[in-house]
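Why run this: before we spend reagent on co-expression, it is cheaper to look at a predicted model of the complex and decide which construct boundaries make sense. The entries below are exactly what would go into the expression plan.
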Amino acid sequence: MGNSKKWTVFVLTVILVFLLLFSLMTYIMDPLMQFRSESKIFKAWEYSEMYSNPGIAKNLSYDTVIVGTSMVQNTDVPECDELFDSKCVKLTYSGGTSHNFKKILDICFNSDNRIKTVYWGLDENQLIVEPDSVRHALPEYLYKDDPISKIKYLLNVDIFYQYTLKNIIRTAMGSKTDIMPLGDVWGKDAVFSKDAVISGYSSPEQQSAKPENYYEEKIIENLECNVLSVINSHKDTEFVFFMPPYSMLYWNNEVKNGTLDATFYGLNIVMEKLLACDNVKIFFFQNDTDIITNLDNYKDYSHYKPEINSFMMESIKEDKYRLTLDNYKSVLDSMKDFVKKYDYDSLFK
Amino acid sequence: MICVTGIIVNVLILTYFKYFNFIIYNINLLFKGKLSLFDIALPLGISFLTFQQIAYIVDSYRDEVPSFTFLDYFTAATFFPKLGSGPIVNYNDVITKLNDKSRKIINYDNFSKGILAFAIGLSKKVVLADNFGKISDFGHGAFASINGVEALMTILAYTLQIYFDFSGYSDMVIGIGMMFNIEMPINFNSPYKAVDIIDFWKRWHITLTKFLTKYIYIPLGGSRRGKVRTYINIMIVFLVSGIWHGAGYTFIVWGALHGLFNMITRASKDYISKIPKIIRWFGTFVIVNICWVYFRADSVKTANTLMSRVVTGGIGGVSAELANSMAQIPFINILIRVLPMEAVLALFFAFSLVIVVFTKNTIERTKEFKPSWKNAVFSILLIIYSVLSLSGISSFLYTNF
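The model came back. Tokens follow.
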């Protein structure tokens, strides 16, 4: 190929031109909506929570955000739009921690949207981990806004293979996917029955009781770093927390693992801290004994059917199941009492 | 006196940053104390810098180097390509080259070779090392429950990971050095082609071996003070090497094992030389693999368990967790559409082993380099694929040492 000067210039030029064209292609296609939400190219989207949520939070228009774990994934977004007369987006993380939700809410609040209400499906499990831990390592470059992060998105063979290419194929095949933030749910394909729950369940061995303050430090840290910090920097937004109803088998685990006292002690701290904020409402569904003792509502010891997601949103609208500074202690006490005295063997009959 | 003080100060600084918590841990262990550990951040490449400084202090003491201005010294010490993980260079050499005016103009012969070396190094790191890292991280995480096949894969994966990681880094240093007309010393010479452990250490991390020989082994008397002292000296060198690599018993065991195998090899030289080469190669490779298990493991116990799983774990397929993580890699994702995951991983290992054992290394390739179309396409493809794979990439292993 001649001399080494020509070789060098050729090699560097080809590399530069290729990388430029590649990043231009990703920019135009924008498979994760990092730059815009409207696409003239794609009719169908490949969706995954960890990768797709930040772009959707940045660029979609909405005034209401629903966050939570798999407990919230079956929430019907169009139904909520109608119910609350709003434009909702549902940003969930399976097994997400409070830090997951802080991160995505920060992006929401930094977007052009003015957010009226945040509905936050709150599980105790979100609060008993290290305050900076997330469920799975996130592609951080999608959650940041600096130039280097943008380059990592634009020049990325994984993004091309997993998203750009799949979006093209889906669009070409004429499929129209419904993505979770706009309404897709997993519950439509799942089987909810007592048999399914019992067959997949094994009761843990009895452990010695943990001290009451077992979770205290973690819960306070998580609340302060990931929850109260968001609430207090957005006083104009209403934060509606709702605690979903797990089945009695979940509570059986708590009893067997010796964490029941620690859990209720922790819940008291959560309520006390959150209810002290003016822009917070809390709805507590964990003690609806009609729901939690009927295993036909579930697919395993904690996941309930989509009807219960609808029921929760309707109840919130009607201001039912609400906890206040006046009633939270007695509600939690009577729930703890119920859990303690319950005949768990009856569930298996 | 100044020489000794200089060495002590350097070692103390390194001790503070790297070994302070390890010392406290041992004090606690011995006296059942509860001294709390400190949160000390390890400065980038401090282990390398310390050895580099000691080499310079000793060389000046021996009048082997002229005195340099502070700026010259500082430039050489922090020359960016080698700052993180070496190689450990001769200051005299680097400073002379940095100051040489004739080297300050672009030399396309060097530059083009530099591109090739850089391309090979980058792809070793990004395409090979980090993907083997996924396997070894998985295995070392789930060491107690994996099956025999997974345990074997974990061990081999780390052996390949650390080689591709560190030699990839060294290739890039050599490549960038060439672009600036500064030849950097060779650090790797196909180490997994070695036919005994002594041979291995002439091929693996060559600048470290040279340093340890010149500044520890020979001052201790080397092999001139009788057989027993020679073996003791060998052991001391490898224990220092182990401790230098990390504050923990796993590194000490790793160093001791290498010391031990070096001694055995030395003692039975005549016998070993009669064994067919292929068997010697295989034996060496197995020993090196076993030593890396201790190097990588979180504790000596973990390493022991992991190795016993090879025998007791039984034969089985790849677990879903590992398969899911590997399936994210585009080229593996394409292959598993037509082959089972186990076969794809076997191909990946076989391909990499062939590269390591049978193909020319980067140094040989740059020596034979011609500005051909073949080399151009090769370099372009490697660099483009590596750059596009960079986003999900971990940091270099060796900067922690």
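The longest helix of chain B spans residues 108-141. Chain B touches chain A at residues 108-109, 111-112, 115, 328, 330, 333, 371-373, 375-376, 379-380, 383-385, 387-392 (CB under 8 Å). Bring this page to Monday's planning discussion.
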